[in-house]
Amino acid sequence: MKDVTGFVFINHKTGKPITSIRKSLQNLAESAGIKERVYPHLLRHSAATQMIAEGSDIRKVQGFLGHQDITMTQKYTHIAVEMLRPDVIKMER
Length: 93
Description:
59% helix, 2 domains, 0% strand, 93 residues, mainly alpha
């Protein structure tokens, strides 16, 4: 059996790593009634944005994403702020 250490997605039936999840994501999105385009890199963006929104240190997010340059990671900070803006406006009222 192949060493699966370091893989995020493992096939629960075979125990082998899933190296391409594009089709699985598309099928799941379709089953869930999601009309927007869903792709593997979107998971990466979503995870990073969620980490920032929940207060993770930007250097930890940078390490998670494997970015050499922190400016790439800072883009997720902007996205997280935009996501939270409606909640802040509600709190101000």
